[in-house]
Amino acid sequence: MRFRGKLIDVSCIQHFTRVLGTISKIIKSCVLRITPSTWYFILSEKVISGGIQIWCELPQGHFFDEYAMDGVSAEDNEIYLEVVPENLIKALRTAQAAKWIKIKLTKKHAPCLTVEVDLPTVSAHSRLVVHDVPVSVVPHRMWPDYQEPKLPKFDVSICMPQIKTLKNIVEKMKNLNNCLTLAANYNGELKLSVSTDMVSVSTHYQDLINPVKRDKDSDENREPQEFSEAKIDIRRFAQFLSGQQVIPNRVVCNIVHKRVVHFYLQHEDVSLQYFMPVIAT
Question: Which UniProt keywords are given for this protein, alphabetically ordered (predicted)?
């Protein structure tokens, strides 16, 4: 296996760092899947045991000026590595003003992603900073565990308000309860609510966009104003909102009634899917 990539454009370096920063805020460890066209960051916990699933895509052509790789074989030209995103971020924290960054797959006692950062100096000499980020190679037999999650048929799909607005509200709500109920309908309405023995608090949004229209044939028994809802872990939701260092163009919330919530974030060249299981009631 072989991989080598180089980022030169300053805006690409900064964008790449912000994307990794977002990922590091919401997951501690994940699988990095490297293909000739795309980088994927994947987390696939067992939803039935309360786990989450994350699927983040970064088209390499939007970030890397140089890119070369050889996978495990000609037929399976891919590389799967288990990595801690926070370690990658630590290696990139000095890179905001870098002339260029090189990322290579190396072996130094153990497999590593070696990050070389060329920093500017007041003299004509360059200053090269090298970080070795330990990784683990995922065996080929385990690759099927890290395929893109299949989307269920959602009961409702709605574009969410601004992340910053939601974050402020959820941060206050999480002091009341560990659970949050998300509810939405095909009239462009979204409702966030928490309840205790003493008080119930809810926030309502109207005139939001439903990016996917209601299937009248399959949903003939459901009226557009009827809410579909899901109860989720409010702390995980708050962590998801506060971790966004890339301001997405839009965030879509898809709900399977009382089963699962799926968030889809789109920002130009980057997409992130986040599956959050529902708390049983």
Answer: Cytoplasm, DNA damage, Nucleus
Q: Which pLDDT score, from 0 to 100, does residue 216 have? A: 61
Nearest to 105 by CA among 124, 85, 81, 75: 81
Of 89, 253, 228, the residue nearest 170 (C-alpha): 253
β pairing state of 30-34 and 79-83: antiparallel
What are the structure tokens assigned to 178, written together?
């560990």
Task: For residue range 69-119, list pLDDT tens digits in order.
Answer: 998 888 889 999 999 999 999 888 877 778 899 999 999 889 999 999 988
Closest CA to 201 of 174, 239, 227: 174
**Looking up tokens 């003003």, which residue turns up?**
97
Token duo for residue 252: 């879509």
Say which CATH class 156-277 falls into. alpha beta
- As a whole number, the mean pLDDT across the chain is 88
Of 19, 39, 44, the closest CA to residue 29 belongs to 44
214-269 pLDDT, tens digit per residue, is: 766 555 566 888 999 999 999 989 988 887 777 778 899 999 999 989 999 988 78
Those residues with Cβ within 8 angstroms of residue 113's Cβ, 6 or more apart along the chain or in another chain: 81, 83, 88, 103, 104, 105, 106, 132, 133, 135
The Cα 5–Cα 186 span in angstroms is 45
Under CATH, which number does the domain 2-146 receive? 3.70.10.10
What is the residue whose two structure tokens read 């104003």? 225
Q: Which two tokens stand for residue 274?
A: 């986040």
Judge contact between 3 and 23, C-beta under 8 A.
no
Q: What is the pLDDT of residue 138?
A: 94
Domain positions in the chain:
2-146, 156-277
